[in-house]
Design goal:
single chain, 0% strand, 7 helices
Length: 113
């Protein structure tokens, strides 16, 4: 019986890794499917974000996904076709909306969420 449970867990783990790879690929492509795919893979993430700030736009939720994926400012700028300065500004606006103190690393905040 333990063998079946272990196999099931490995299968679950493989599916999660596949989903993470697919999500990262969608992020790099700046795909409109990213939001829905991430929502299916990590439904609790959006519940936690909504509990903090229920009025986030889809574009802001997408930006939260990029931060949750630990993508650098330069990577996000490259994938979304904007300047790194624009990404920095978006981070600052998002910090204010989510009440993230400036002394807390935004990537750590999203990882702990």
């Amino acid at each position: 019986m333990d063998n079946k449970k272990t196999e099931f867990n490995l299968e679950d783990l493989n599916q999660r890794f596949f989903a993470q790879d697919e999500i990262l690929a969608l992020a790099k492509e700046n795909s409109p499917r990213l939001l829905n795919k991430f929502r299916l893979a990590y439904p609790d993430f959006f519940e936690k974000i909504s509990a903090i700030q229920p009025n986030l736009k889809n574009s802001e939720l997408l930006f939260c996904i990029y931060l949750k994926l630990n993508l650098t400012t330069k990577e996000i700028a490259t994938y979304t076709y904007v300047t790194p300065k624009a990404i920095q500004n978006r981070k600052n606006r998002l910090r204010k909306k989510l009440n993230i103190p400036s002394e807390i690393d935004i990537y750590k905040w999203f990882n702990d969420l």
